[in-house]
Design brief:
Largest sheet: none
Oligomer: single chain
Order of helices and strands: HHHHH
Radius of gyration: 17 Å
């Protein structure tokens, strides 16, 4: 179980850092967390970054200590959620191509990506994070891991709602509004739209 937990995290974070490294080689600044922002947007991004780092540390400790109170079947469900989270995250990063950023960039122009996995989720990278976090909670449950994971997931939601969506509405206007009306924030298409 511990090896599987480490592998899920390894695949997830390798994707993250390999993409960041590739973009850096092309002269693309990937990490924009808290940069060029003020007020609530800056606070959300900084808190989100802190929560993701804290969650990673607690996940590693939980795997190492092999903490859990759940039966094997629940832990196996956690494995599947973690693997699905990896797949969703990788698909989102690959689909974004050079438009992928960590945090919103007001300086760099990117494309609005609406194809691939973005046809069924406006935020598949965050969905991938959430699935991995839930998977880890099921595999290595402890109260601290649950609390920090829920905090990070809440910060992702605030990032989407109060930073990314307002930026995308302002940047892409009607194109984004049409996409917003057709695809759900996390998963699924909305009915009644063509």
């Amino acid at each position: 179980m511990q090896i599987v937990g480490y592998m899920i995290l390894l695949v997830f974070y390798l994707c993250y850092f390999i993409k960041m490294f590739q973009q850096r080689k092309q002269g693309i600044q990937t990490d924009h967390m808290g940069k060029g922002k003020q007020g609530i947007q800056k606070k959300i991004e900084i808190m989100m970054k802190g929560a993701t780092i804290a969650t990673f540390i607690i996940e590693i400790l939980s795997i190492y200590l092999n903490t859990t109170t759940f039966p094997l079947i629940i832990r196996i469900m956690g494995i599947f959620l973690g693997i699905i989270g990896d797949i969703v995250f990788i698909a989102s990063v690959l689909t974004m191509k050079d438009s992928w950023r960590v945090g919103v960039s007001y300086e760099e122009k990117t494309d609005l990506i609406t194809d691939g996995i973005y046809q069924i989720s406006r935020n598949p990278a965050f969905l991938g994070f959430n699935l991995v976090y839930l998977g880890m909670c099921l595999m290595f449950f402890n109260t601290i891991l649950l609390i920090i994971s829920l905090l990070a997931m809440m910060m992702f939601h605030l990032q989407i709602k109060y930073v990314e969506e307002p930026f995308l509405k302002q940047e892409f206007k009607e194109q984004y509004l049409q996409y917003y009306q057709q695809v759900n924030r996390y998963i699924g298409k909305r009915t009644g739209f063509k």
